[in-house]
Amino acid sequence: MSVAQADKTGTDPVNFAKAPVNANLSADQKLRFLSDMLRIRRFEQSSLKLYQQGKMGGFLHLYIGQESVAVGTCSLMGPNDHAITAYRDHGHALVVGMSMNECMAELLGKSTGCSKGKGGSMHFFAPDKNYWGGHGIVAGQTPLGLGIAFALKYKGLKGCCLTYLGDGAVNQGVYHESLNLASLWDIPVVYIIENNQYSMGTSLARSSSIKSCLAERAEGYKIDWDLVNGENLYEVRAKTFEAMGRARETCRPMVLEIDTYRYYGHSVADANAKKYRKPEEIEFYKQNHDPITLWENRLKEEGIATDEIIAKIDKEAKEEVAASVQFAEDSPLPELEDIFSDIYHEVDMGTEAGRTGRHFFND
Amino acid sequence: MSVAQADKTGTDPVNFAKAPVNANLSADQKLRFLSDMLRIRRFEQSSLKLYQQGKMGGFLHLYIGQESVAVGTCSLMGPNDHAITAYRDHGHALVVGMSMNECMAELLGKSTGCSKGKGGSMHFFAPDKNYWGGHGIVAGQTPLGLGIAFALKYKGLKGCCLTYLGDGAVNQGVYHESLNLASLWDIPVVYIIENNQYSMGTSLARSSSIKSCLAERAEGYKIDWDLVNGENLYEVRAKTFEAMGRARETCRPMVLEIDTYRYYGHSVADANAKKYRKPEEIEFYKQNHDPITLWENRLKEEGIATDEIIAKIDKEAKEEVAASVQFAEDSPLPELEDIFSDIYHEVDMGTEAGRTGRHFFND
Amino acid sequence: MPVITYRQALNDALSEELTRDENVILMGEEVAEYNGAYKVTEGLWKKFGDRRVIDTPISEAGFIGLGVGAAMMGMRPVMELMFWSFSYVCFDQIINNAGCVRYMSGGLINCPIVIRGPANGGTSVGATHSHTPENFFANTPGLKVVCPATPYDAKGLMKSAIRDNDPVCFMENTLLYGDTGEVPEDEYVIPLGVADVKREGTDISLIAHGRAVITALAAAHRLWEEFNISAEVVDLRTIRPLDEQTVLESVRKTHRAVLIDENKPFCGVSSQIATMIQEQAFDDLDAPVSRVCSLDAPAIYSPKVEAMQLPTVDRIIQKVVAAC
Amino acid sequence: MPVITYRQALNDALSEELTRDENVILMGEEVAEYNGAYKVTEGLWKKFGDRRVIDTPISEAGFIGLGVGAAMMGMRPVMELMFWSFSYVCFDQIINNAGCVRYMSGGLINCPIVIRGPANGGTSVGATHSHTPENFFANTPGLKVVCPATPYDAKGLMKSAIRDNDPVCFMENTLLYGDTGEVPEDEYVIPLGVADVKREGTDISLIAHGRAVITALAAAHRLWEEFNISAEVVDLRTIRPLDEQTVLESVRKTHRAVLIDENKPFCGVSSQIATMIQEQAFDDLDAPVSRVCSLDAPAIYSPKVEAMQLPTVDRIIQKVVAAC
Ligand SMILES: Cc1ncc(C[n+]2csc(CCOP(=O)(O)OP(=O)(O)O)c2C)c(N)n1
Ligand SMILES: Cc1ncc(C[n+]2csc(CCOP(=O)(O)OP(=O)(O)O)c2C)c(N)n1
Ligand SMILES: [Mg+2]
Ligand SMILES: [Mg+2]
Predict the structure, then answer these.
(1) What is the number of the ligand 1 atom nearest to the C-alpha of C30?
(2) How many angstroms separate the CA atoms of C275 and C282, rounded?
(3) Does A202 touch chain B (CB under 8 A)?
(4) Which residues face D4 on adjacent strands?
(5) Angle, to 10 degrees, between the axis of helix A233-250 and the axis of helix A291-301?
């Protein structure tokens, strides 16, 4: 059933700021959210430049336009809460606390990258920060998030796993298998559909047949669901907090569908970025729904931020990015022999198991 | 939306016999349904004996108890209607018109079998009768039925594909992918969930988390669905006819969930057949819900059948079965070289493509 | 003869077969309105419309299964996998339904489907997007596997694959899409199961498929220029059916073979070729058959390093010099 | 020493490891209340309860993915596939998530999962249920593959597989579950990557894995009795990591090898072994390495005929006699 239908306490549009999880926020915390959103945007803007300079390979999926989703949801993570997402993974990575250095170095394929240059843009990981990536196969991460949450419950830890997927990913069967398992076994997983309305060049209407929304499919599995206006940081936090709380306390899963929008193409290689979406559409979102601008205005209204403060925060973000670019550029590439580490744990550790028998079959 | 909710015309429980598709049935047709159900049951009862005599290998999944579903639904197939099911495929095969001879011979692995002894119990096929099998991988047939229906629409033929699956099969992701595609593209497929309440030893409650029923998951895809009491042949036909009619006329898919029950184990090899279900439960169904007994009583009430007529029909069925056993026993096994035919069409036909390059790599 | 790209050659083949046979349709993610993630289907949606060229949701198991069902009904679906790596989410549909339905029906059904898309490493898209499963599908009796290396072969083989009455896995390469070559304007087809000697030689046979053929040709050139070694380059073109004769004739002439294979080594295509050669040409061999495969690790992202993970001209030359 | 079945040996290994390590759980279709489709997990649900031994819906991609996620968190899930054939509906989860997550995370994550179940033909369950994908998974760096032939090996290898910190594909055989053999009562483990000479011989090496080892031993017996040929039988036991040394030592001693492999021939495990032998023991070979594989067709149902589709003692003897 839709939570919105069920019970509106604390989720009445006008009240999101008053929701407990938002009401007690300090000015510093609120400014931190702005800083985090700006850090994501600035990080990606220069990564785009580097890509265009030919300093990266493969794919680069930019998160710009969706920052409020990662910041709003990941800012709620406690010590036993975990997160896992798809290939559009830079935003979540920075919010959970990964350094720009390790992330930028990964983009440039350097050995100082978070994945030692082996994963690239789609594969940022930080298990020490409860961040499990970064996955390239559409919806392939959806049962992994389920398993992470299963382990939490098994170990008796009160936590949940935020498991992100896109509006196109909902049509991979494994997501449905995961929903049934989550509900059948009471697994504390919170699925977050980041609905940016397109899967590559395909609009939601051309890829999904739905009743009223994508999250509603959860009904068939007796899973609660809710719709979230992603441009409103307070709403994102209020509704996600509720879902996480229920998961932690009752182990019940939930599906949140968060409306958002990406400004750039599906990936930087997307040649048709401005064909399947009218430039006016993109402009309209930038003008009226930019999550950063909206949050800045909100903070100004609340008297927390001034143009000066905002400029200062932005300047710090840009400086952090610049430093990370420098770090990445200065970092060494992996060596040829590095190709053969990080494949088998036993081999890497030089255990007896890792030394017994032939593991690699190079001519 | 549930059709039952939407509109009850012609589907009001008391009226199934009066539904157009049943009202005009001749006595012969009604007796034919009885004969078809008895033919399935007698066929399978002796196949069970043969299995126990060690004359078969592998699996034997008996349909006994579910006969009214195959008879009720397949009896509605017109020239452009097709059917495809899983491994519990004997009943549908006999109703679409496959001969007992070719079916029994297939069970014994004889070259006179419908699949020349290459497919076995799980793989009966008769494309000339619009019957596409017989598939062993749970839910693997669900997108195939979609493709058959897609081809019908593409060729401009007014027909549909009855695509059967079990209550356990609904938790394979590919079924959900198929539902989305069917609705998104208006494909005339009718999914029929034969809900016999168990997938092997697992009850529905232990395998599926649902709101009210399995078919209801179709809601999330904007697909109409309905529940059917499988023991009532009139109801099965009335509701299936409605679904097929809509599919033929509007190309809209539908999901029907037909309640039924299997008397025997999951397969004859099911060692626990009487452990996960109380013998009383099985007895209860046999006593109160046997589709054949219920139909016999109905025909008696209608003055169409007498004990003599029923006995005669049953006798004919048994004789047909006995003859098919004889035929199967007398038939030859495939030759060793037959292992290498029916793999590549081009090779079998001796075309140039079939003669170019090496196709088989036997030492 | 006109010189066109590998991409254009495929596009022409698809366009000609769509025109030729009403039963041919194209289906896949972004193949229609988007013109294809790698533009192989560019312009075909405009030309043939919604009915013939169809965009799908991200449901490979669902739409590949749909294609198999439609093929059983006599259609000739040409299904695009944006990457062959994504065959791993529809593996069952390809192997069990496309590959086994004819056998399990005792020959009552055939399945004239083509599944196509790129299967290659070397583009820094990471381990999950760089799989080369030609060995998996060629392992499967009932399936056919084609890996063209040039525009000419790509067009002629695609037309044969579409007209073939059995399921064909057609594996392209994103690094070859831009390569150019002569392709006749007149209609032609290349039968499956016929290898092609891309360069004649007398001292050693370099046997390869797909992009490895191009690498082998570059190596052969340098071997001649720098080492005076005359290398023959045999392009398998199709993996199953396999043209063993051409391979054996070459080895019986040169008495030496190095196999170039972008597959991972363990049970890669080259392991089958090596096994076949040593079994059928044992006495003709003056040296063991050796291999140059992708380095045996998941595909590494780091672009410069990944370039060294695939078979390189230098590694081929080392092997050849060692064998001669 | 007690004589127990292959099934019981596996059951004992699972029970001991469940007792030993709280992080070990069993999960799969019908593994708990039903005691396992093939009774390998019999009694374990009663003994360890709902929390440790868990029945799943028919959602392989979902629950194998769940197991991978739980393993990333430090659990040691032992996942049953009722048949390894069903790995084709969760192929992506096994190869991309279990197999690649360590690499793509630069070694930050490891995945101590065991995926187990039977992988064999010969039981008339038809083409879709008779797949033997050890070559597919062993092709994949990041995965390990184990194929035990005897109760003793099954127990010792299962315990090592569960304690191993990398993903292990453990492939059993429904035709071996009832086989009996001596298994010590005291705790023991068999390291992965160590082959076992199951019978010593001097004239020819028969190299096999899984049930083919049993067939090879029967052939070796008759070869000695009837032809006075002394055949050595090498059981690979694990496919990856692979004990090449033991294979090469045997071949260097006998100068001849016949590979027995229930895999399909094209790129089957034996193609890798043959390639390795001819490359590393070329000068020691007095005859080409030859193979006896499953006949190259989908598994036929007809029981008597299917028995001939797998490697038989007669086919082995023919090959050996031809090679000697
Ligand atoms: C199984 C699979 N199929 C196709 C792809 C190629 N692909 C990568 S992202 C993508 C679109 C996904 O869209 P959505 O789920 O909406 O996420 P978004 O990119 O909008 O964040 C596609 C088709 C893939 N990576 N994996
Ligand atoms: C992908 C896959 N997983 C598991 C199996 C083994 N299996 C065969 S039938 C079955 C139970 C299916 O139950 P249901 O869908 O309810 O159909 P029913 O047998 O009741 O007709 C299982 C688990 C299989 N054949 N395929
Ligand atoms: Mg999207
Ligand atoms: Mg059932």
Answers:
(1) 23
(2) 10
(3) no
(4) D181
(5) 100
Chain B residues with beta carbon closer than 8 angstroms to that of C103: 118-119, 342-343
- Tokens 């039968």 appear where? C191
CA nearest to B269, candidates D170, D84, D30:
D30
Whole-angstrom distance, CA of residue B297 vs CA of residue C274: 71
Burial of A337 (0-12, 13-18, 19+ CB in 10 A): exposed
Residue A29 makes CB contacts below 8 A (sequence gap 6+) with: none
Paired tokens of D49: 């309860």
Side-chain-side CA neighbours of A33 within 13 Å: the count stands at 31
Q: What is the DSSP string of B344-359?
A: -HHHHTT-HHHHSSB-
Closest C-alpha to C209, from C279, C131, C262, C141: C262
Name which of B78, B60, B61, B59 is nearest B21 in CA terms. B78
Q: What is the DSSP secondary structure assignment for residue B2, as one 8-state letter?
A: B
D297 touches chain B (CB under 8 A): yes
Calpha distance D209→D148 (Å, rounded) = 7
Which ligand has the minimum distance to the alpha carbon of residue A171? 1
Encoded tokens for C36: 């294809």
Q: Report d(CA C75, CA C69) in Å as an integer.
A: 9
Taking contacts as CB-CB distances below 8 angstroms, the residues of chain C near B353 are 160, 164-165, 191-193
Annotated active-site residue D131? The verdict is: no
Active site (annotated) includes residue D129: yes
Question: DSSP string spanning D25-52?
Answer: EEEETTSSTT--TTSTTTTHHHHH-TTT
Residue type for A74, please?
C
Residue count (chain A)? 363
Question: What is the value of pTM for the model shown?
Answer: 0.98
Question: Dihedral sign, CA of B316, B321, B322, B327?
Answer: positive
CA of D145 to the centre of ligand 3 (A): 37
**Separation CA A175–CA A161 (nearest Å):** 15
pLDDT by 10s per residue, chain A, length 363: 566 554 444 444 458 999 999 999 999 999 999 999 999 999 999 999 999 999 999 999 999 999 999 999 999 999 999 999 999 999 999 999 999 999 999 999 999 999 999 999 999 999 999 999 999 999 999 999 999 999 999 999 999 999 999 999 999 999 999 999 999 999 999 999 999 999 999 999 999 999 999 999 999 999 999 999 999 999 999 999 999 999 999 999 999 999 999 999 999 988 888 899 999 999 999 999 999 999 999 999 999 999 999 999 999 999 999 999 999 999 999 999 999 999 999 999 999 999 999 999 997
Of the candidates C94, C176, C89, C178, the one whose C-alpha atom is nearest the C-alpha of residue C138 is C94
**Length of chain C, please?**
324
Question: With an 8 Å Cβ cutoff, are D193 and A344 in contact?
Answer: no
pLDDT given for residue A8 in this prediction:
43
